[in-house]
Design goal:
Layout: H1 2-25, H2 30-48, H3 57-67, H4 71-76, H5 85-98, H6 102-127, H7 130-142, H8 144-150, H9 156-175, H10 179-195, H11 200-215, H12 226-247, H13 249-254, H14 256-260, H15 270-289, H16 294-309, H17 311-314, H18 321-336, H19 349-364, E1 368-369, E2 372-373, H20 374-393, H21 406-417, E3 422-425, H22 431-439, E4 456-462, H23 469-480, E5 482-493, E6 496-503
Parallel strand pairs: 3-4
Antiparallel strand pairs: 1-2, 4-6, 5-6
């Protein structure tokens, strides 16, 4: 046993050396590296220009429920799937070190979003060609939905980044056996699953792809046989599952119902599954394409179709990863029957853009104008559009909003107005926004406790989705014994109206 362990450790260290030595020995193109650097800088400008956008409900709730407590509380509290645990632990550390300002908490997802640009280049280059990688990087840099998820502190952009990384590692392992890379694959999958369980989709997709590639004999001779390749495939998958279970064990021990019986995760009934999935598919299409011209969206779809139709001529692998994606997604839908909101599928955006880029660059590379191939002319035009758009956003770069919204203005007013004996009452669907903006400026949590003793009630009405003063009075007045004769409006900020009311004596 000791001999086997020693051999494994030595092999792992040797493969790690091979991996890092290979990174420095890759063909280096200075001009292409500068080009990719400019694309990445442009992506950073696009994303950073969104970092001051007002806090979303999910962000505010994540901050209130999962970030401000202890690390243990962050790791074991899963009463809502809002807790993207790995990211929440990172943000817990960030919060303790640098505070809870919105731009501070958004920096980690911003970094992952920017790193998707070189990762998409690498995936496109490895699976297809350098031109496909560069064009994919441009598309990922500019795609609105990826920009949005890079500028909010939610875990979806982490899963999207990890998806690119595991596809890159999987392709590398198909081409060369390396214990260190197998270990990296396990670690990245575990981190993704510990962020959001939807990382299971990329896991199943990649393992289907490696399985089909094995049966087609599309793996390197460094594996002794197909059986040898599949043994690594099986062991790495099992080890990924076991480590993930260990990380989720606090939840499995203390609150298993939160993980398995959460009402947000209840499977869709079989009789409505097809209609529900079709509706969610249309919702996803609308969410992804709403900010861009429809003709451009359909050109993207056509590029993906071209990549699949001409797969043998364009790709460096036998079995299309696109087909593995379809098989993997359908398999998990039939097993899990998820209520698939558009954000669930955000992991697939970058791979879809890679395939679209591969289709167009592959076809265009066959056409030449004088000494220039048409694919690089197309890339030049796209990059100029990207750089121009980034230049237009430079004046917008700020970690704070250019002007305060209604909720921020309301919070600033309340900071000056609140007395120790006050209690704040407002509808729960709006409370996290205001509570977040108050808490980052001081200890105002007690004002929202509805069991506290109070001498004055601050009633906040947010006129939205049918809510108005009469609705809140019917909801709260009897329980909290309002003396409606004392009701008085203090300030109004847009659809936020702040009232004071005293209880009956």
């Amino acid at each position: 046993m000791a001999v086997l362990l020693k051999g494994f450790v030595l092999g792992f260290l040797r493969d790690a050396s091979v991996f890092f030595r290979g990174l420095t020995q890759k063909e280096f193109s200075f001009s292409r590296s500068i080009f990719l650097f400019l694309i990445t800088i442009s992506a950073a400008i696009y994303r950073f220009s969104e970092i001051g956008v007002g806090v979303s409900y999910d962000e505010a709730y994540t901050y209130l429920a999962f970030i401000r407590g202890s690390f243990l509380q962050t790791a074991i509290d899963y009463h809502l799937p809002n807790n993207h645990i790995f990211l929440s632990l990172i943000l817990n550390f960030i919060y303790r070190s640098f505070g809870g300002n919105l731009w501070v908490l958004r920096v980690p997802p911003l970094i992952f979003g920017i790193l998707m640009v070189p990762a998409s280049y690498m995936l496109g280059k490895n699976l297809y060609a350098s031109s496909a990688g560069v064009f994919a990087a441009i598309l990922v840099a500019a795609f609105p939905e990826l920009i949005h998820f890079s500028a909010v502190f939610r875990g979806y952009i982490l899963v999207a980044f990890f998806t690119l990384i595991v596809f890159i590692l999987g392709d590398r392992l198909r081409n060369k056996k390396n214990l260190f890379v197998w270990g990296m694959l396990i670690i990245v999958f575990v981190l993704g699953l510990y962020t959001i369980p939807t990382m299971l989709f990329p896991f199943v997709i990649l393992y289907f792809w490696l399985l089909f590639s094995a049966f087609l004999g599309d793996f390197d001779g460094s594996y002794a046989s197909k059986r040898n390749f599949l043994s690594y495939w099986l062991f790495s998958g099992i080890l990924t599952g076991l480590i993930t279970i260990v990380l989720y064990s606090p939840i499995l021990i203390f609150s298993p119902d939160d993980l398995f019986n959460n009402h947000w995760l209840i499977p869709v009934p079989w009789e409505v599954l097809s209609d529900r999935m079709l509706g969610k598919l249309m919702n996803t299409w609308n969410a992804w394409t709403a900010p861009i011209p429809l003709w451009l969206a359909w050109l993207g779809v056509l590029g993906g179709v071209l990549a699949l139709l001409f797969h043998k001529k364009l790709s460096k692998h036998k079995f299309p990863l696109q087909v593995a994606l379809v098989i993997g997604v359908i398999t998990l839908i039939l097993i899990q029957r998820p209520n698939a909101w558009p954000r669930i599928w955000s992991f697939a955006i970058a791979p879809l853009l890679v395939w679209s880029a591969a289709g167009w660059t592959g076809i265009m590379s066959k056409v030449k104008i004088k000494q220039f191939s048409l694919d690089w002319i197309m890339i030049g035009i796209a990059s100029l559009a990207l750089f121009w758009g980034a230049a237009q956003r430079i004046p917008q770069l700020s970690i704070y909003p250019t002007e305060k919204g209604n909720v921020e203005a309301s919070a600033d007013f309340l900071i000056k107005e609140l007395r120790p004996s006050d209690m704040i009452l407002m509808d729960g669907s709006h409370a996290p926004f205001l509570e977040y903006h108050l808490l980052i400026q001081g200890d105002y949590e007690g004002y929202f406790h509805r069991e506290k003793e109070y001498q004055r009630i601050i009633l906040i009405v947010v006129e939205k989705n049918g809510e108005n003063l009469d609705v809140l009075l019917r909801k709260f007045s009897e329980k909290y014994k309002f003396n409606t004769d004392t009701l008085k409006i203090l300030r109004s900020f847009g659809n936020y109206q702040i009232y004071e009311v005293f209880p009956l004596e």
